[in-house]
Structure prediction request, 421 residues.
Amino acid sequence: MRGGDRDRIRLAGVVFAVLFAQVLLYPGVPDLVAALGATPAGWGGDVDAILEAGKWFLTAEFVGFVLFAGVWGALSDATGHRRRFVVVGALGGAVGYLVLPLVASVATLPYGAVLLVRFLQGAATIGAFSLAITTLMDLGGGHGRNMGAAGIAIGLGTALGAPIGGQLYAVGSFVPLYVASAMLVVAATLAATVPDRTTASDRDGLIAALDGVRSRPVLGLPYALGFIDRLTAGFFALVGTVFFQSAFPVGAAGSGILLGAFFAPFALLQYPMGRLSDRVGRVAPVAVGSLAYGLAVIAVLLTAPSVVLAALAMAVVGVFGATMAPATMALVTDLSAPDQRGAAMGGFNVVGSLGFLAGIVGGATVAARYGFEAAFLVVGLSEVVIAVVALPVLLRLDLGSAGGADRRTPEEGAEPRAEEA
Prediction:
């Protein structure tokens, strides 16, 4: 196996471990926030209470993502290093996951302290996640191929995390937190074996690296697409989970299976769809995929009260999500300078995290005030609108038939720097 292929697998493993750890918690958020003291144990279907407590629990992590994703990326560009920051971020996230159950098992934490730990854990974890994807961007072999590897790792992490997390909650409310911590230790171990292939920025300092991204407004296109895509993910992480447990006779385990019905095709199709976007360009996968994805999200609402139909609808959502997701991430690589990729991907993850926050907070607010029907319609139609708006911009970009694929040798890309090999 060639060195570039080995590194691609290892980096995909880092991305997988981070997402698997994150999604482990989602199916049992009602149980977890109750165990952490936010709501009474056995919340008994009080939808408003669990939406409120779950909203802030998930939001705290993503505030950390938003505030620090760009910082990690620009720092890696300014120093010419990625590996060391991936390792530090993963280990910091592991500590964050571990602190909550250890402290809560011996004392009652104020819920504000729980949220602070979640914020710090998110600030660390985003460094591992964003810079692992950025290191994949540094590899040769085609941007769609590399982002397809990231996408399949994201998809597999979330596909397995949801159903496995649901089963772990049956063992104990804190078990998913312990497993998440262990997964981030695995991520740090994998990252330590991958050499840096960065192009050190010829700009000096962190602020200059961020300025380099601001000077390329065309990145606003994939950023806007990423915002809406992650908005739907945040929506399903909380509102979707509560909807499933309210509309169907399922608990955490059943919710995990329904979420897994989306993430399984989303994972399996990421890599081939990323390769396809290298061949046919980004326009069709992004525009058509986003349009169909939004309509499929709305279709999930129409499946109640059939669990089988809900699972099938979630699978359709996964197929169209896999069509557009790797092509959207590949656009970031296509449109960013090689020495500014860390900041560019950091910016993409900042915007994506803001989208996730909007999905959690906005989705929970709309669902609590106007009902699940209105919430699903708002989220689904947002995806439809961004597809329509993005199409003429995509056509004007003229990325070429290969979608801006990397023209370097397909095996390796840039050689690792001697001191990092």
Notes: Residues 166 and 253 are 4 Å apart (CA to CA). The two ends are 17 Å apart (CA to CA).
